[in-house]
Task: inverse folding
């Protein structure tokens, strides 16, 4: 029997209408457009409105992904949402999106691995599809990260934005397309370098993001490069075989650092950080969507997805689109 693969059939996105530029931030916090661009490459970010929630963004991204895939909600038997900013402690944001889409069958649940969440979700969905536990899944990265920012802390508030991206992934037997390899890792020793100082159990509060940026940068470049090499090796391929590199959009300097370390041409790196900032678990599918829409990523292209986030967590997914 031929191998079953998890094939990306459609990609969707959702970005809040409100755009906040660096110049606008500079009116309320001690920063400037020049300072932000030089250190991060970010020029603007989308911020959710008061009545715009993570489930809303995820729902719209899922709807577009289903439309682009030409697949009905009747066929969906799994929804996995990667998010650090759920609507509620429970129920899961995934079940809320399931309800919004009118799906009354299958299963839905959330995954929390911060910025690496979408990569972790792809790992889980790929495993479930390959074992026959699911046939058609919606994988969503959705965040309203603006809700956990201290807007007086210029070291963090300038970095993040809100949004959602979604893949529709379906089982196919035989063929060359689909997920070829996955790789995930974590190391809890470094939690204090990037964390939120609140939570239901410890403080009964939401808390705010705190980060020691220079140390996160150092770990990110090294660990991302190793994850990508390991992921490619599992598929019997080399980094040189890649057509496209779709990284987590944390910081342009990290993207450049990883590409340089692995010898990847800058033209092969998909970057949306200037327009989206860091949308945490949403950033990888948002970047993938942008590159498909503008015609860069095409069917049969070999694409490496990667992310690095708080925990620390990190990982990569290699797929033939």
Result:
């Amino acid at each position: 029997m031929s191998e079953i693969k998890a094939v990306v059939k459609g990609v969707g996105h959702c970005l809040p209408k409100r755009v906040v530029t660096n110049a606008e931030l500079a009116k309320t916090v001690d920063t400037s457009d020049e300072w932000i661009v030089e250190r991060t490459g970010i020029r603007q970010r989308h911020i959710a409105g008061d009545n715009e929630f993570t489930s809303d963004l995820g729902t719209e991204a899922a709807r577009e992904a289903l439309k682009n895939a030409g697949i009905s909600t009747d066929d969906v038997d799994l929804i996995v949402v990667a998010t650090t900013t759920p609507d509620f402690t429970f129920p899961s944001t995934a079940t809320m999106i399931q309800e919004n889409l009118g799906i009354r069958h299958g299963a839905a649940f959330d995954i929390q691995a911060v910025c690496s969440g979408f990569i972790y979700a792809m790992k889980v969905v790929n495993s479930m599809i390959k074992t026959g536990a699911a046939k058609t899944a919606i994988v969503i990265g959705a965040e309203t990260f603006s809700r956990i920012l201290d807007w007086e802390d210029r070291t963090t508030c300038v970095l993040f934005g809100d949004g959602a991206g979604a893949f529709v992934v379906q089982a196919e037997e035989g063929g060359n397309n689909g997920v070829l390899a996955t790789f995930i890792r974590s190391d809890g020793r470094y939690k204090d370098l990037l964390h939120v100082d609140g939570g239901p159990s410890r403080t009964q509060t939401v808390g705010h993001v705190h980060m020691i940026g220079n140390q996160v940068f150092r770990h990110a470049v090294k660990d991302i490069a190793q994850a990508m090499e390991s992921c490619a090796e599992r598929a019997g391929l080399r980094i040189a075989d890649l057509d496209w590199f779709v990284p987590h959009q944390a910081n342009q300097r990290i993207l450049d650092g990883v590409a340089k370390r692995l010898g990847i041409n800058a033209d092969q790196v998909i970057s949306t950080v200037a327009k989206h900032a860091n949308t945490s678990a949403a950033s990888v599918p948002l970047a993938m969507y942008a590159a498909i829409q503008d015609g860069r990523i095409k069917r049969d292209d070999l694409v490496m997805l990667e992310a690095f986030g708080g925990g620390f967590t990190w990982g990569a997914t290699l797929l033939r689109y």
